[in-house]
Amino acid sequence: MRSESKSPATDSAESGPGPADRAARRAVTVFPLLVLAAGVAGLSTPGTFTGWAPQVPYLLGVIMFCMGLTMTPQDFTGVLKRPWAVALGLVAHYVIMPGLGWLIAQGLGLSPQLAAGVILVGCAPSGTASNVVTYLARGDVALSVSVATVSTVLAPLITPPLTLLLAGEFLPVDAQSMVTDILKTVLLPVVGGLVVRLLAGRYIGRVLGVLPWLSAVTIGFIVAVVVAGSADAIRSAAALVLVAVVLHNGLGLALGYAAGKVARLGAPASRAMAFEVGMQNSGLAASLATAHFSPLAALPAAVFSVWHNVSGSVVAAWMARRGRRSEAE
Fold it and tell me: What would be one Pfam family of this protein (predicted)?
């Protein structure tokens, strides 16, 4: 659910938000409702969706391909311009969220399947809507895009060993197989989308406004499939999972913002850090949990898909209001 990779911040600085940015903002606003409806559908009529479970990795590939289509070389040159800030965001993301996942799993006494699922969410790369939410918060979108891009590209090298380290005490983790799955479902589609954008950018620009909606609908369908696969367990575990997800996301947002403040990156960059740390690629986590653990282990990722977009939108509105007040003073 990225917006055009020239970035909303750049566009707004030059000529105001473009059509792709407005579409992305509408999509990220409607997205929680869409995903919630998908979850209700999966819970109400599980038989409609359970047969789609083997297709989840391919659906995730569609989302990642759309993400690649929104990328340009500027996303990577931005890393070279601000290596310290991007490195800090990357370290904060892959230290804070995995660590919080493990602590929450231990503190709440989660079952092995749910514990592994929460930890896997924490070990995933940045969420695909993080740069749009950063834009809504009047944050540093260029930094957000750079951190999200690098965390996604490095996910095959970081997510599997982190999951093995932290979730291995709960369930067996085949890290090598997980690397292969992330390469196939994340990195290759992203690179493919980037190549298509470079070769046919003139034509891709015409459909950029549609991509956030395509991603939103696809993630919603993944959530319906995941919820359908564990419909029976949800009735007894939903409240506990919701508590775990709210804690995970809320603490991630707060600690991400604090990391930016401690590093004296400034208010806009600290807002970006909050969302790059607290928002996860829950679609990837759900896909990996379904493939390597069980549908129940994918439940935290499904709940996270809804909650982090709701909380992200609310926190972004609050940050934007505070930012406007500070500028007025």
Answer: SBF
State phi, psi for 280 to the nearest 5 degrees: -115, 160
What is the spatial distance between Cα 273 and Cα 187, in angstroms, rounded to a whole number?
23
Q: What is the pLDDT of residues 180-237, one digit of tens each?
A: 989 988 889 888 988 888 888 777 777 777 777 787 788 888 888 888 877 777 777 7
Task: Fill in the amino acid letter for 44.
Answer: S
Residue 15 — φ and ψ, nearest 5°?
A: -145, 20
Which two three-digit tokens encode residue 50? 């359970």
Dihedral angle, C-alpha 195, 136, 276, 38, nearest 10 °:
-80
Q: Which of 238, 228, 223, 197 is nearest to 284 (CA)?
A: 223
- How many Cβ atoms are within 10 Å of 134's Cβ, its own excluded? 33
Distances (CA, A) of 32 to 8, 78, 179, 328: 21, 30, 29, 32
Give the pLDDT confidence of 279-293 residue by residue, as tens digits. 998 888 988 998 888
**What sign does the CA torsion over 134, 97, 67, 213 have?**
negative
Strand, coil or helix: what is 172? coil
Average the pLDDT over each of 136-140, 155-159, 259-263 and give the range with the smallest value: 136-140
**Is 80 exceeded by the pLDDT of residue 82?**
yes
CB atoms within 10 A of CB 254: 15
Q: How far apart are CA 2 and CA 70, in angstroms?
A: 7
> Taking 60 as the threshold, does the pLDDT of residue 10 lie above it?
no
Domains and CATH numbers, the chain: 8-322 (1.20.1530.20)
Phi, psi of 126 (to 5 degrees): -60, 150
CB 289 within 8 A of CB 57: no
Q: DSSP state, 15?
A: T
Flag the least confident range among 4-13, 16-25, 28-37, 72-81. Answer: 4-13
d(CA 122, CA 251): 12
Structure tokens at 267: 């208010």
Distance CA 328, CA 214 (A): 38
